[in-house]
């Protein structure tokens, strides 16, 4: 059964809130130059934005806010049907485009403005190789989806708010990998700025690697979790066999 238009609207709003906070921090850095503190400010902005979005809308849509997450759940059949995939993907991608468009409208005329496009980092004056970018995007998305699968599908996990666990994971991964790949691990986050800027350089990396990483993470968590056994009832009817 499809989740319906309310879930799709929730995905749009949640993805918008999440990306608006983080991508605005990126744009702020390009205009104001936060210096070395940008390496902390930007990941925290993304992580805290995601925490807020999950707490607000997770109970309505499941809080995917990421095409890689949606596709991974559909491919691995984690209680998510293919009928909802188009609605979720369109909502998430539109949110990314809307954020980038608003930022371009608000600050496009300012000197130094650039959309929050994700591109390979620079190390020692040289651009990081595409293969390394793909590897880091794969591993970062693997880590993110591994945590999502744990808190979203394993009933043994109790007392850990999913919003905090996932938001902190995004912040930690962005802190660790942002200098290599821009720390996207979310096709919607990369697609919006690329479309508005008209720059699709390396865009395939920010789709293929996150999707493969997310799918691999679901299978990996299912393996380490082991067989799912329904808990025994507290009281058994001894008259039944």
Mind explaining what this structure looks like?
With 241 residues, this protein is mainly alpha-helical. It is 66% helix and 2% strand. It has helices at residues 5-32, 38-61, 67-75, 85-107, 130-153, 162-181, 187-197, 205-225; strands at residues 122-123, 126-127. The protein has a two-stranded antiparallel sheet.
Kindly summarize this structure in a few lines.
With 241 residues, the protein is mainly α. The protein is 66% helix and 2% strand.
Total helical elements: 8
Name given to the CATH architecture: Up-down Bundle
Q: Superfamily at the CATH H level?
A: Glycerol uptake facilitator protein
Q: What shape does the CA trace take? A: globular
Cα distance spanning the termini = 35 Å
Alpha-beta classification: mainly alpha
The tally of beta strands, per DSSP, is: 2
Helix content range: 55-70%
What's the CATH class, please? Mainly Alpha
**Low-confidence parts:** 232-241
User: For the largest beta sheet, what order do the strands appear in spatially?
Assistant: 1-2
Largest sheet: 2 strands, antiparallel
Written as H for each helix and E for each strand, in order along the chain, the element string is HHHHEEHHHH
Note the beta-strand portion: under 5%
The pLDDT mean sits at 92
Attribute tags:
single chain; 241 residues; mainly alpha; Glycerol uptake facilitator protein; two-stranded antiparallel sheet; 66% helix; disordered C terminus
